[in-house]
């Protein structure tokens, strides 16, 4: 763990409050901005001070070798907060430690980092619903609780078509007011590829399984091995699909494990939910979904994959203890998706019926969880024990196992690995995509070797030297302008549904106060950060969903329409910010420190 004091590197402007252009935020959300004179501020700072303390907070984030953009964002945000009277320190943690602190132990004040997001806005249900406020995982790491928001999140799950679109819009507008977290930007993803070795890079998004399927080898030896270089060592250390410390999007997991349905995403962002392990599905009525599996599918160890394994997977993700503990022990991933399924009735080896408690749109999203072999995972329902380590009650072996070697049913199977060096997969020749009657992208190489290299610059050198075929991780933004494209080497740009954000731990004061969060949101110049931190290779956002779901009222039009920045060109207007905090009910002392009840 590395802790440092923030540095106020940016210039701040305390004399230009009158020059700030302020637009009305949604539903009066920015009503904290009424003008207040200096003498009124001084008067207010002298009353009700006995139970107030200067605010001191820590920003938890990733180091430069874990995520360069995160630490740069954290430093800029820290400098701004210090300028307006908040004492700030920055705590940098490794990828695993960061996620353990934030999503497992909830041990943070605020944090800065990427969120995996989702193509469908229903990811917000598990991200923010109060049901999940005390659970570990990406489900509600903020501890955010708001019954009205809960109702909106549930309403968008229950609706379909245009009614759902309206419900999503209402949800997003409420979140723009509440600011449970501050969405900052969505990066543009860039990857370097060897066009002379493979064709078809643009057909599938390289953050998904389909980016590595259907490629056309261009040389005699291309079909032998697809060589990826990854800037994150975690896939070489842990291949547990349920583990949140080691999983973000889980691209390698998608290649190892099949799901009933797959969101087939193109490089331009177009996507559609299509049958994958399921041969087809149909709605028998408003709440009953019949799923037919492809026949004669097996796991990598040769055991048959049947409807019983599918039913087991949904039960197991709901309670990894399988009823063996005093309270359910849900998996720390896929919670929102499996919560859509109320019951499963196995009809025969390849047919099952799901009773769905949501609308059909969200119900079909439930088909995207990885299917686990019951004969491997049922034995992992026991309470976890790690010598010398205190394990939280309800933690099962399923959550803590590294799952090496993994046994799935996906288009690739595990071959070998060396921690922090590589994980190598080989084609699963019995996979259904290789059947003549199946029109889905298939594995076209004998082997996929994912080598580990920590930096974009050295990963680029591997591509340029023909020692690798693709950077499976997106390149860091600062190197993109240095890429020299040739006939052999191309730069592939694709949209992202992950987003960078500032997260609040609403379990403690003042972060549970929406007025505090609103003011902090207005201290972040998202457009300036996109240029300064991401070198322009990102889009500032007011809401964290895919473009197709963003309502007109929250579209970015040069500024945040809900929480406009209190300043200009990256320079915060200190007077305006302090006025905003005071109008939100907070106080300053004579030394200019923001004071709060703690």
Shape: globular
Q: What is the number of E strands?
A: 27
| CATH fold name of the largest domain | Dipeptide-binding Protein, domain 3
Alpha-carbon distance between the two ends: 25 Å
Number of separate helices: 16
Give start-end ranges of low-pLDDT stretches: 1-25, 27-49
Major sheet attributes:
7 strands, mixed
Specify the structural class: alpha+beta
What assembly state would you assign to the polypeptide chains in this entry?
A: single chain
Highest CATH level, the class of the largest domain: Alpha Beta
CA-atom Rg in angstroms: 25 Å
Strand order of the largest sheet: 1-4-3-5-22-6-23
Arithmetic mean of pLDDT: 91
How much β-strand is present in the residues?
15-25%
Helical content stands at: 10-25%
- Number of domain modules: 3
The CATH architecture name of the largest domain reads Roll
Write a structural description.
The protein has 598 residues and is of the alpha+beta class. The protein has 3 domains: 2-187 and 498-596, Roll (Dipeptide-binding Protein, domain 3); 189-231 and 411-495, D-Maltodextrin-Binding Protein, domain 2; 273-402, Dipeptide-binding Protein, domain 1 (Alpha-Beta Complex), CATH 3.90.76.10. The chain is built from 16 helices and 27 strands. Helix 5 packs antiparallel against helix 6. Mean pLDDT is 91; it is low at 1-25 and 27-49.
Write the layout of secondary structure elements.
Layout: E1 2-5, H1 38-44, E2 53-54, E3 56-61, H2 64-83, E4 87-92, H3 95-104, E5 110-115, H4 123-128, H5 147-158, H6 161-178, E6 181-187, E7 189-194, E8 198-199, E9 216-217, E10 225-230, H7 251-256, E11 261-265, E12 271-275, E13 278-283, E14 288-293, H8 307-318, H9 335-338, E15 341-348, E16 351-356, H10 360-365, H11 374-377, H12 397-400, E17 412-418, E18 422-427, E19 447-452, H13 456-464, E20 470-471, E21 489-494, E22 499-504, H14 514-521, H15 526-532, E23 538-540, E24 567-568, E25 571-572, H16 574-583, E26 587-588, E27 594-596
Parallel strand pairs: 3-4, 3-5, 10-19, 10-20
Antiparallel strand pairs: 1-4, 2-27, 5-22, 6-22, 6-23, 7-21, 8-9, 11-12, 13-14, 14-16, 15-16, 17-18, 18-19, 24-25, 26-27
Helix pairs in contact: 5-6
């Amino acid at each position: 763990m590395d802790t440092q004091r923030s540095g106020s590197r940016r210039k701040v402007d305390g004399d230009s409050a009158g020059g700030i252009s302020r637009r009305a935020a949604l539903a009066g959300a920015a009503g904290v901005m009424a003008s207040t004179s200096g003498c009124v501020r001084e008067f207010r700072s002298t009353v009700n001070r006995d139970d107030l303390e200067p605010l001191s907070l820590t920003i938890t984030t990733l180091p430069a070798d874990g995520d360069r953009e995160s630490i740069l964002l954290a430093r800029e945000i820290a400098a701004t907060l210090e300028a307006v009277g908040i004492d700030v320190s920055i705590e940098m943690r490794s990828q695993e430690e960061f996620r353990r602190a934030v999503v497992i132990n909830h041990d943070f004040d605020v944090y800065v980092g990427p969120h995996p997001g989702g193509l469908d806005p229903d990811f917000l249900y598990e991200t923010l619903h109060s049901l999940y406020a005390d659970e570990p995982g990406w489900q509600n790491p903020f501890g955010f609780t708001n019954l009205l928001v809960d109702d909106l999140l549930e309403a968008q799950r229950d609706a379909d078509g245009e009614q759902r679109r309206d419900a999503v819009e209402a949800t997003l507008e409420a979140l723009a007011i509440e600011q449970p977290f501050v969405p900052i930007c969505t990066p543009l993803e860039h990857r370097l590829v060897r066009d002379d070795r493979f064709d078809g890079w643009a057909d599938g998004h390289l953050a998904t399984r389909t980016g590595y399927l259907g490629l056309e080898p261009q040389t005699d030896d291309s079909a032998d091995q697809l060589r990826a270089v990854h800037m994150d060592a975690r896939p070489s250390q842990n291949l547990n699909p349920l583990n949140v410390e080691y999983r973000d999007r889980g691209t390698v997991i998608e290649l190892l494990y099949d799901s009933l349905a797959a969101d087939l995403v193109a490089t331009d962002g177009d996507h559609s939910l299509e049958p994958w392990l399921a041969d087809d599905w149909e709605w028998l009525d408003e709440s009953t979904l019949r799923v037919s599996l492809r026949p004669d599918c097996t796991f990598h160890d040769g055991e048959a994959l049947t409807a019983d394994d599918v039913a087991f997977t949904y039960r197991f993700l709901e309670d990894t203890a399988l009823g063996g503990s005093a309270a359910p022990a849900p998996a720390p991933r896929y919670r929102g998706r499996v919560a859509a399924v109320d019951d499963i009735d196995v009809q025969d080896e390849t047919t099952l019926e799901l009773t769905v408690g949501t609308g059909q749109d969200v119900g079909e999203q439930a088909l995207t969880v990885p299917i686990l072999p019951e004969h491997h995972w049922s034995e992992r329902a026991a309470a976890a024990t790690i010598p010398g380590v205190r394990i939280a009650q309800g933690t099962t072996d399923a959550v803590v196992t590294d799952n090496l070697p993994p046994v799935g049913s996906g288009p690739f199977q595990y071959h070998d690995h060396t921690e922090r060096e590589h994980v190598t997969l080989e084609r699963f020749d019995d996979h259904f995509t290789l059947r003549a009657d199946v029109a889905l992208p298939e594995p076209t190489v004998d082997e996929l070797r994912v080598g580990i290299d920590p930096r974009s610059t050295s990963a680029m050198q591997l591509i340029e030297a023909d020692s690798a075929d693709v950077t499976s991780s997106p390149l860091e933004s600062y190197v993109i302008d240095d890429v020299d494209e040739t006939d052999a080497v191309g730069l592939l740009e694709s949209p992202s549904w992950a987003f960078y954000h500032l997260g609040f731990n609403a379990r403690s004061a003042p972060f549970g106060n929406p007025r505090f969060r609103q003011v902090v949101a207005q201290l972040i110049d998202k457009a300036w950060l996109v240029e300064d931190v991401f070198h322009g290779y990102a889009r500032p956002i007011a809401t964290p969903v895919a473009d197709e779901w963003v309502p007109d009222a929250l579209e970015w039009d040069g500024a945040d329409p809900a929480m406009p920045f209190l300043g200009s060109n990256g320079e915060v207007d200190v007077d305006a910010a302090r006025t905003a905090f005071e109008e939100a009910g907070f106080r300053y002392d004579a030394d200019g420190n923001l004071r709060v009840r703690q």
